Amino acid sequence: MQKITIVLFLASLWLACCANDKPVGTSATQAPLLAEAASAAPDTLRPTPKGGAQKPSSGAPTKTSEKAAGAPAPAPNAGRRLAGFVEVKSLDSSIQLDIRYATVHNFTKAKIYDCPRCFLRPEAAKAIAKAQNLLRRQGLRLKLFDCYRPRPYQQRLWDKVPNPDYVTPPAKGSMHSRGAAVDLTLVDAQGKELDMGTPYDFFGPEAHTTYTQLSAQVLANRRLLRRTLESVGFQGIRTEWWHFSFRGKTFPLSDAVWNCRE
Ligand SMILES: [Zn+2]
Questions:
Q1: What is the whole-number distance in angstroms between the Cα of residue 62 and the centre of ligand 1?
Q2: 240 is a catalytic site residue
Q3: What is the pLDDT of residues 116-144, one digit of tens each?
Q4: When you count CB atoms within 10 A of the terminal residue's CB, does the N or C end of the chain come out lower?
Q5: What's this model's pTM, rounded to 2 decimal places?
Q6: Ligand 1 centroid vs 38 CA: distance in angstroms?
Q7: Domains of the chain
Q8: For residues 241 and 130, what is the distance between their CA atoms, to the nearest angstrom?
Q9: C-alpha 100 – ligand 1 centre gap (Å)
């Protein structure tokens, strides 16, 4: 009887910590990162060390921030505009949005953002509009899954998944929380996503840009996305085909949260 109790207890622990439908990689180096921009991006903008996924360190998540115990609700920006940022749709309304963290359709299964909006630093927003123009000539468009991620929302994400293999600790911040990163894909003229080999936020080596056991069409689609984004000043990362960070300028982390009441 006691053994059964122990087994049930262990099973519940596993469910609490690990159960989701993502095929998580078997090692830290296989795990793609929401921590991407902070720890794995091959850019030179960040003062943080390079070298891929951080290994989980015992106790680190709980010590990172006192806020993690109960993150306060982010204070919404009072005005229509978010100071220091540009809403991407205001530059080109044909850019599609599917901001997953404003829904439960993300790997945490929880709604992280209060509403779906896509802001970026002005230089990065203009570059995305430029990329959209380049793609339009080929009958394609961009679809954005995530843009600027206010630090209070990064905190919510961390509270759900306090594991630096998957989420950048809020205190460290990511390029998303600097307003200089996007998660995106390509869609055709009908708005249908091109085949990129895996869904967005797929946890496994198949999402890596170095993974080549994919169809010629998938590899061509990924190449087109990467080359287009690189041509306007972004740089991809190895572990996530959908993530690109804006190069050339360093931006500070930001707590500003967009208004959902307008
Ligand atoms: Zn990203």
A1: 23
A2: yes
A3: 999 999 999 999 999 999 999 999 999 99
A4: N
A5: 0.73
A6: 10
A7: 83-262 (3.30.1380.10)
A8: 20
A9: 12
